[in-house]
Amino acid sequence: MAISEEFLNEIRLRIDIDELIGQYVDLKKHGRLSKALCPFHSEKTPSFTVYSDTQSYYCFGCQKGGDAITFIREIENLDYIEAVRMLCEKAGLNMPEDNYDDTINKKRRRMLEINKEAARFFHNYMLSPKGKKGLDYFLSRGLSMNTIRRFGLGYAPDDWSELIKYMTSKGYSKSELHEADLAKKSTKNDRINYFDNFRDRAIVPIIDLRGNIIAFGGRVLDGSGPKYVNTSDTLVYKKSQAVFALNFAKNGNVGKLILAEGYMDVISLHQAGFTNAVAGLGTALTDEQVRLISRYCEEIILAYDSDEAGKKAVNKAIYKFERTGVKIRVLELKDGKDPDEIIKKYGPERFKALVDGAANDIEYKLLEKRALYDLATSDGKMNFLNDATFILAKLNSPIEREIYASRLASELDVSKEAILTQAQKNKDRKEKRENKVDFGKLKDEIAPKKDEVNPQRPDNIKAAKAEETLISSIIANPDFLKKLENKISSQDFVTDFNRRVYEKISQRILDGLPIDNLFLSAYFTPEEMGRIVKLSNNSQKISNTITECDDCIKVLKQEKNRVKNIDPKSLSDDEFLKLFNKNT
To answer: What per-residue string of b and e applies to 37-72 under the rule 16 or more CB within 10 Å gives b?
Structure first.
């Protein structure tokens, strides 16, 4: 992996990390820092920090951090080279194509070409006389030819190898089609046979935010077999991270997105003029999809099916979106089980009225509880109000509690004060439960935790802290290295990760090269970059003196000798095995 230092420096000069990250999250200035809700995990209080002076970021909640390249890798789910390429596009630079090993990236681009060619095949086949069955299906669903073309819809032949024959004639191998999940394989008598994954199905291409076709959904037409066959995860597609039609919806939403359950609902909504409709991919909405959707809207309108499964999905979606700070509203789909049916029966105007009148998440929860009881009876009224006060207890805003309590009091002829008092009691009980010491959990928290970045750290805390202080000192004061290099070598380090960081930073300093995060991200994973940024920030918490570094070196040599001088004969079998695992 060797992108030239000069080119990386050009990127560093052209890309401002505040502007870059500000395209994805709502950054707020706090002196020299900028803060936001983290785009990588759900939170209500901002712990994601951007440092303008070091052109880096760090989240104190999930410990992700790094430079501009690392951010793009994480947020766009790209490898290193693809992230650099994307930054080049943003900076108006031409990516040098001949100075790095581009094997994985070439494979990714090849797979995208395969998907694009397959989509062309499915679409053209549908428009041919042999594919009339597929076209008739889409037309029967009320889709126009414009919509069919816009979404690139197609039809997979009722044949075991039609796509394979076409794609191999275009120069793509069967093994490449298998990797893209367009073909499956079976082995019989030591012979590998390949066959089309999609057969006799209406095809919906899945398109990412950059306009690449990354996967396909295939719907059965005759009721046989599973209703849907979808592309499994591949090099270019992770269904837990993808959102259908966001490539269209992000440009036409005016701060709002409609989240429906399936492809056909979304396509129907777009045709009816609701071009801000999207759908999650996979059987359940994931945290990654919620964070991605939240980046492109301030308000999400949940338009799930009106059946029992749809209601359960709504409650799960509310729970996930509540942690993002996005405003939530829920459609009550009257006189229809899904958006597609309502539009067909009553037209777009009716659906727009439902959108305009959609309840927010609290109103929805109250309506849901109200439907469980007969409010004409005293017991029904009492049970509903009891449930309602638990809902109000979750509200942090006293003003919101007051508004809903007033509304309930007026509707049910009960004093507002009684409702507020009960809600406060429920709130107090909830907080007491949350604040109660769970000694089992406390023991788990006190016990050394597994460290994914530096797995040797929990068993070598003293040495690891000395290593980290030393690295932080050198990052903040590169001139220290000359004064320390005869006193310590990387072999004195106890943990492998810190040794690698020290070696890379030291070598770059000795070679007269910069040690900014942007230049380090080629050598470390995004998770490792998060730790390196943390070490960089630690320079504010240490004394930044040679004396402190000398003390760290003494600790390291003592700890190294301690590990070496342990007598294996004095250890139990389990302790000996643990020691062996630590040092290999």
So the answer is: bbbbbbbeebbbbbbeebbbbbbebebbbbbbbbbb
CB atoms within 10 A of CB 308: 8
Using an 8 Å Cβ cutoff, are 70 and 521 in contact? yes
298 is a domain residue = no
Is residue 276 situated within a structural domain?
A: no
Same domain, residue pair 424 and 538: no
* CATH classification of the domain holding 25: 3.90.580.10
Residue 570 scores a pLDDT above 80: no
Distance, in Å, from the CA atom of 63 to the CA atom of 302, rounded to the nearest integer, reads 31
Q: What is the CATH number of the domain that holds 470?
A: 1.10.860.10
Residue ranges making up the domain that contains 378: 372-435
In a domain, 208, yes or no: yes
**Statement to judge: residues 144 and 226 lie in one domain:** yes
Counting residues of the chain whose pLDDT is more than 90, the rounded percentage is 54
Q: Encoding tokens for residue 505?
A: 């930073």
> C-alpha angle 205/208/209, rounded to 5°?
140
Q: Which residues contact 140 (CB under 8 A, 6 or more apart)?
A: none
Q: Which of 237, 267, 302 is the last residue of a domain?
A: 237
Same domain, yes or no: 42 and 11:
yes
Q: Which two tokens stand for residue 517?
A: 């995060």
Among 69-73, 374-378, 445-449, 517-521, which stretch is predicted with the lowest mean pLDDT?
445-449
State the alpha helices, DSSP H only, in 170-234. 174-179
Q: Among candidates 315, 323, 409, 325, which has minimal Cα distance to 362?
A: 315
Q: Decide: 362 and 396 in contact? Cβ < 8 Å.
A: no
Torsion of CA 486, 487, 492, 496, to 10 degrees: -70
Report how many domains make up the chain. 4
Q: How confident is the model at residue 448 (pLDDT cuts 50, 70, 90)?
A: low
Q: What is the pLDDT of residues 154-184, one digit of tens each?
A: 999 999 999 999 999 999 999 999 999 999 9
Give dist(CA 330, CA 11) in Å, integer.
44
**What three-state secondary structure class fits 459?**
coil
